[in-house]
Amino acid sequence: MATKAEQRERTRADLVRIATRRFAERGYAGVALEDLVAEAGLTRGALYHHFGSKAGLFRAVVEAAQIRVAELVELAVEGCDETLVEGFLAGCRAFLEASLAPEARRILLVDGPAVLGWDAWREGDLETSVGLLEAGVAELADAGVIADRSLGTVSTMVSGALNEVAIANAHTADPAAGIDEAIDLLRRMLGGLAPGAASAPAARRAAEPAPAPGRARAT
């Protein structure tokens, strides 16, 4: 027989599973707790006991979704036996592909920040997908693939770009093509962050003669 602790965990997992599907299908505002607990065969009191409120249940759903996406990213990186760059890009691709699922797009990228607030949503994101992204960027820098500067900004920009691409891809006729294009652009961006690459244009400008007085330099 299951212990009380096991029964509690099972009840909690059932509520999160049912709520994940309903929040993905209808959005946070469109889910009624009465319908949710009825499907689970429980009472509102049981839900409040485990999560405190509808918002508490949604927070648990978001956390579970963030963990699932991060696990998929990790699997993709670990399963890539090519270069560090290709492994990094494999993780980014896995994030974009996972984000096509309704529970990831609607719950994580749309309702998550709005319902939980940016700070709370970002905290969970930093502990999962963004944490992996930052580790990947640091690894690229340690290996000399990209310059060891402004790594926090690099991670933030890549994370923001991936989130925006994920949202945009959900509304396109060919999301697979959108993912391919995004990964190709990201590959080229990483090339531009290689040591010395960023300083080359500045060096060329420094070598150019100063413009004659009264004349603007051509751009």
Commentary on this structure:
- The protein has 219 residues and is mainly α.
- The chain has helices at 4-26, 33-40, 44-51, 54-78, 84-98, 102-116, 118-127, 129-142, 151-169, 175-192, 199-207.
- It is elongated.
**How does the overall form come out from the CA principal axes?**
elongated
- Oligomeric state of the chains in view: single chain
Strand content is: under 5%
- From the N-terminal CA to the C-terminal CA, the straight-line distance is 77 Å
Structural class: mainly alpha
Question: What is the number of E strands?
Answer: 0
Number of helices: 11
For the structure shown, list the relevant keywords.
219 residues, single chain, mainly alpha
Q: How would the blueprint of this fold be written?
A:
Layout (H helix, E strand, L loop, with lengths): L3 H23 L6 H8 L3 H8 L2 H25 L5 H15 L3 H15 L1 H10 L1 H14 L8 H19 L5 H18 L6 H9 L12
Helix pairs in contact: 1-2, 1-4, 1-6, 3-4, 4-5, 4-6, 5-8, 5-9, 5-10, 6-7, 8-9, 9-10
Task: Offer a concise description of the structure.
The chain is mainly α.
